[in-house]
């Protein structure tokens, strides 16, 4: 089950499309959907979490808390809507395209993909691109 929580003015429309897409991503990776919570909040709120839980004093687009159990993919994904908007401008992308990238990035982390090393970053980016294209094909 996928839940969406909004702590900003931003409201994700067509939540069912996103849920179906992310469930398909999880299935393509050979995993099973458990419970995912996407929480949309401000830069300041996510910065506070980054400081409190990770001891990082910088803005980020997503913080993912992993509650996976075996092949069951579960977690809380906190997304800064402000950071997504800034990144969309920075990378000359549409807001919703950048949001999809951040959402699938968090899910891929839960599935087990990393991004600390250059090789891992290349794999992560390839998977993100692949699955973002899948959103358009399936919906």
UniProtKB/TrEMBL annotation:
CC annotations in GO: cytoplasm
Alphabetical list of NCBIfam families matching this protein: rRNA maturation RNase YbeY
Protein name per its UniProtKB record: Endoribonuclease YbeY
One Pfam short name: YbeY
Chain's role: Single strand-specific metallo-endoribonuclease involved in late-stage 70S ribosome quality control and in maturation of the 3' terminus of the 16S rRNA.
Family label: Belongs to the endoribonuclease YbeY family.
Origin organism lineage: Bacteria, Pseudomonadati, Bacteroidota, Flavobacteriia, Flavobacteriales
Subcellular location: Cytoplasm
């Amino acid at each position: 089950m996928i839940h969406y929580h909004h702590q900003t003015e931003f409201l994700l429309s067509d939540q069912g499309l996103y849920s179906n897409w992310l469930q398909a991503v999880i299935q393509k990776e050979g995993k099973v959907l458990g419970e995912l919570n996407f929480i949309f909040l401000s830069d300041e709120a996510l910065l506070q979490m980054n400081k409190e839980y990770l001891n990082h004093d910088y803005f980020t687009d997503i913080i993912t808390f992993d509650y996976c159990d075996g092949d069951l993919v579960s977690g809380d994904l906190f997304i800064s809507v402000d950071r997504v908007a800034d990144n969309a401008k920075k990378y000359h992308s549409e807001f919703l395209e950048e949001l999809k990238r951040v959402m699938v990035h968090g899910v891929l982390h839960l599935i087990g993909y990393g991004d600390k090393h250059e090789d891992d970053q290349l794999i992560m980016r390839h998977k993100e691109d692949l699955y973002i294209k899948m959103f358009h094909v399936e919906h």
